[in-house]
């Protein structure tokens, strides 16, 4: 995905002032990790998060996340949603997971 598609870079639309405090998130982030729990074997995984402008004239950041098994690349989990900064400094977050679970959160940033 090109930077302009993520809402970053020279070709991106102007940044909505309402998402400016979170603009450092815009882009694609990848990493690797190791998971574990007492009842399962440890496992290695890759993860990608993407944050982009919604393309509308609203202060909304589109979000997506996916994980996969390492080294096979087999998909493990995916979710997507929206982050909406509010004038009071809080952030409304709505996320739908591939398992059918939906999260609605309000984050208070100090």
From TrEMBL:
Signal peptide per UniProt: none
Catalysis: reaction(s): peroxynitrite = nitrate
A Pfam cross-reference name: THAP4_heme-bd
Sequence ranges assigned to domain THAP4-like heme-binding in this UniProt record: 19-105
InterPro entries with a match to the protein in the record: Calycin (IPR012674), Nitrobindin (IPR045165), THAP4-like_heme-bd (IPR014878)
UniProt-recorded name of the protein: THAP4-like heme-binding domain-containing protein
Annotated organism of origin: Tetracentron sinense
